[in-house]
Amino acid sequence: MADDIRHDWTRADIAALFALPFNELIFRAQSLHRKYFDAREVQISTLLSIKTGGCPEDCAYCPQSARYDTGVRAEKLMALNAVLDEARAAKAAGASRFCMGAAWREPKDRDVDSVCAMVEGVKSLGLETCATLGMLTKDHAKRLKNAGLDYYYHNLDTSPEFYSDIITTRTYQERLDTLAEVRAAGIAVCCGGIVGMGEDEADRAGLIATLAALDPHPESVPINALVRVAGTPLDDTAALEPLDFVRTIAVARIAMPKSVVRLSAGREEMSDETQALCFLAGANSIFYGPKLLTTPNPAADHDRALMERLGLRPMPA
Ligand code: SF4
Asked: Which of 156, 169, 135 shows the shortest CA–CA distance to 59?
């Protein structure tokens, strides 16, 4: 096991994985996947936008940035009871983890109070809890941990080199600092990135190498395919070739063998066959539900049918 779990992956090592013949790459990824996981199990999370739109940040992919005219209206933080109703429904639909997302640069003290109450409520329903609220201070991370937060979702988005093409209002280092505060507070880390934003394969290798250098590796690694939203600067970006997406999943699985790799945003535009290849490449988590924050996601019925066709079953919490 010691040889599989490494934090010293170089860019060249990761680039060499990307360059493997496809079948060799998938075989290696699937072999490691079977070593650390039950290959029939898929962890299911549900993501709810608890505070939508009006974000001051300029992430070029995001319809919730106040800087882009995408038709997403700024809303207030949801009421506690409404969040708990959604969490109950997610549990009834088979989710084991409930993730709450707020379009903030960073939460204020009173926001953290409100989210802590939501975390306590969701936790009491028997669900794992996850939040994505922007940058966190040490104090905010500790308060969320004390409320029972299990996971914090904070992406690196892309490679350090390509990052400034995508966002200018916060630095890569600030993202790494938030991840360090989350880890120090004892909250599990959910961190990955987005591909298909116009980056090249070297950037995808740079993203995976940076994630794999985190020690410990993030417990959960979401790999998102860009959802091109009209009004955002990335609206007319050329779509990533599906096999390049599958390769990214496989390389993430090899570089971080014990992490749950999540097939995240962009599934709505993916064929069932591409998703099946992603599961073969080592993806073992999905977001379930009709929406991912503000963008569409496959209907739960379709997901259930696909899992059944592939002989997959939900991973217990
Ligand atoms: S990704 Fe998050 S931080 Fe960036 S604009 Fe969207 S809501 Fe704001």
From this structure: 169
Catalytic: 130? yes
How far, in Å, is the centroid of ligand 1 from the Cα of 185?
23
- Give the Å distance between the CA of 311 and the centre of ligand 1: 36
Cis peptide leading into residue 222 (ω within 30°): no
- pLDDT digits over 269-286, tens only? 899 999 999 999 999 998
User: How far, in Å, CA of 246 to CA of 144, rounded?
Assistant: 34
* Pocket mutation for ligand 1, best pick of 49, 58, 59, 153 (most atoms within 8 Å of C-beta): 59
- How many alpha carbons lie under 13 Å from residue 53 in its C-beta half-sphere? 11
Instruction: Name the residue among 259, 262, 245 with its Cα closest to residue 197.
Output: 245
Distance of CA 84 to the CA centre of its chain: 22
The DSSP call for residue 56 is -
* C-beta separation of 151 from 128 below 8 A: yes
234-266 residue pLDDT tens: 999 999 999 999 999 999 999 999 999 999 878
Closest C-alpha among 84, 222, 252, 219 to residue 150: 219
